[in-house]
Fold this protein.
Amino acid sequence: MNVTQRLADLAPNRRGFMRGLLSGAAVTVALPFLDCFLNANGTALASGAPLPTRFGTWFWGCGLTPGRWEPKQRGAGYTMPDELTMLSPYADQLSIFSGFKTFLDGNGLTPHQSGQRGIITGTTGKEPDPSIDVLIADATGPNTRFRSLEVSPMGNPNNTISRRSNSIINAAEASPMALYARLFGAEFQDPNAADFKPDPRIMAEKSVLSAIKDSREKLSGQLGAADKARLDEYFTSLRQIEQQMTIELQKPEPLAACTKAEKPNEKPVGTDVETTFANHKLFAQILAHALACDQTRVMNISYTDGASSLRKVGEPTTQHIHTHEDPIDDKLGYQPGAAYFENQIMLGFATLLETLKSVKEGDGTLLDRTVVMALSECGYAKQHTLESIPVFLAGGKGSGKIKTGIHVAAAGEPGTRIGLTVQQCLGLSVNSWGVGSMRTARPLTELFV
Amino acid sequence: MASKGKLLFGGVALLIVAGAAVIAFPELTGQKAKKPADISSIAGGPTVLRRLTQTQYQHVIADVFGNDITIGGRFEPDIRDSGLIEVGAGKVSVPASGLEQYGKMARSISVQVFDKAHRDSMVGCKPASPNAPDDNCAGQFVSQVGRLLYRRPLTQEETANLVKGAADATKTVGNFYGGLQITLTTMLQAPQFLFNWETSVADRSHPGQFTLNAYSKASRLSFFLWNSAPDDMLLTAAEKGELDTKAGFTRQVDRMLVSPRLEAGARAYFADMFNFDGFNNLSKDPTIYPKYSFGLATDAQEQTLRTVSNHLLVKDGDYRDLFTTRDTFMSRQLGAVYSIPVPKDAPGAMPDGWQPYSFPAGDPRSGILMQVSFLALHSHPGRTSPTLRGKALRETILCQKVPDPPGNVNFNVVQDTKNPAYKTVRQRLEAHRTQPTCTGCHKMMDPIGLSLENFDSIGTYRAGENGSAIDASGEIDGVKFDSAEGLGKAIHDHPATTACLVNRLYAYAVGRQPTKSETEWLRADLGKGFAADGYKFKPLMRRIAISDVFFRVIAPDPETRPTRQASLQGAAQ
């Protein structure tokens, strides 16, 4: 990637410069020669490289009511269905996928999990393939401070769909304050600051890390294959931490769209619709700043858990229980209790899109350069079906990489076709993806630019 | 009582659900128990690389640096496998975001270790100059602390690398202690610290077999009994070869069993077995249950752990009596849920606000299943769930697996919680159980949980629901009862109760599912010993620790040995 190359080219000079500075205490220096990094109108980096395209997943549990969310028309210009009216302002950025499913190939169903695992990892139940965000982060994000960021608006670190393997599960940040501190605390280097102050503590820590790295071979030699793989995963993580330190010690490239997020106040954590909505909004704002400041290019939001614990304030019954137990209303033809929560969840999703759209970047907005894959884990929660699991792709209109605003209707196709398409659009060299009946080599070409 | 239980259980040997046998009690089918297994033929399992659990990390930091060190930061969530976090610990690694968090915690610990209050007692030497590297003093510090953190002496190479790191860091920050502090930060992120390592060696007393080396023995034993790293005495015993002799090893086991640290170890085991980590993500609706809070949840766990610890360790009681005992402990906050006054000046009140309490005869509560911890943990946020309670009892107390519900179930018979015909949970569940696809599994769970319906979602007693009296009758594996007390007695007498403890405690001790031959040995040999001891817990721990099986491992060569999955196949649940 050009941006990366540009940074790499600059690194030796800057490191040499800093070594001089670090021999004593930390000092503040101005680096005016870096100000020419952005081109005149801010549509690209000064090097000529385009602004980065980001990727996100947005997960919710218990699906949507079949028949209420699928557009009647295929292709572009579809009419927004009843259950998705709050997404109308983003219709030109929203592609809807209906009729895509997860095949289990005879493996057991883990209710409220299997459906999602199939679509984002390509598994039929057993094989621990990495989730799509990890594949994309490995390919596009290794030079950002954070490989990816995961959050749980319900405040549960286990609410995450991001996984490298069975032994590496990327836990979610449970509090907006903690996420803020991670991103914009003392280690944050403002890309637009005139002054740059490298932290000698980070420099020293980075040098001592080599004492750990040097022990790798000896430690690894004692282990059987399975444990060795887990130790390798540890060292992969260590490399990422080292990379993070390297980035924190460099003067970052200026980014016009980057401003520090507002520090959130401590908020109660809870699983009711109001608390979840409020915490998600805070998370969305912080994440938008993180993307604009190029602290990460990949984010994962799990709005609810799979068997959604979302509930109305003061009412005992969760969304999950509603989907199983509510009677179908004779006149409406669906479960109004369950539909209420689906509506609330889609309002949450609209808030994310609104937040991304509100950040101006170059001649567009952050939403134009962010592709968000939203998905649930079942077609009809009442019956735990894996047919027609709702999947959306939102954003990315200005990235020049993917077509947006399309309804793609399939009839029982593997949901991996969507993920394969996204990977190819974002420039990953991959021809096929998934295992067993989830394996596909057929991208959805209607999304290709 | 025991014979009555046996008679009643005799009729139910096998439960068939959806065509698949899910639970089998071979000892109940009338088939004769096999001869005790030949110990020398028992195959050990593989060595296990376990990531320190949250509580282990906390215990080790407190043991090495002192109780006053606070640990700030988010732990990587522990993963449960085969019913235990301690088994899950052998299957996880550390993601980058997790290592970032370990780094944050390490930094905050190091800052405290090197503050004025701690520094001089932690660093036993003075540098020649406060602003320059001193390899001797740095070497002394990293060897001493490293031995406790890595649970073995550091290799020369490890020491040399750390001393060089300390020198580099000292030069960068311009301060000896600052450099050493950063070195400690790094050691606390090292895989040697974050993982519990096991190294195998040829077993000299059993040619052809393999055992753990002395330091790995020390760690396995120490994490089993104390849930913490070996102390100086145990490491010294390892160094002197004492752990490789029966007498020397037994001496250490007996020393550790009478140590006050045993309580922390036993509590850690039961917190794991009872899934108390689930409280981290448990929420109750505050408008329905204003008494529920983080403090109440903490006290609820504490109550059960105090009950267990008092009954098993202090009184040396029979494990089965935990399900019938009326003796427990109360805090003021719990008193509000139990509707029991907890006056500060009551006789027996302890300085920490807790006091012993016995439910009087006739009170509906007895045993740990009727305590707030079990009742609240296995309920929905705003209402009870006999299904969740029944499932939890099957899985955590009896070590039985309840299958997941199938996909694409057609719920044609809908439940309406406002339907006047179905006022109670029992009535609604019975309507649900008329579904043939649901009935198989629900009949394993619901009749257990229904007997606990007198206790609401946070464990408060209630006589009725929606104006209807609660019928607390229930059934488990052919044993019928008409109250929660009857459930406690049935669990007391259920053979799976004690078999489960033996099996799970062993899995906890070795950090993996028992192998097939170990399972046989646990059933035939250890299970009998447990019964002969009157189902006492400490003797069971001792039996496991000093058995010839505890340290046995399979050949270490990664080329020749089967993968872990293959070697564990066939291990009984």
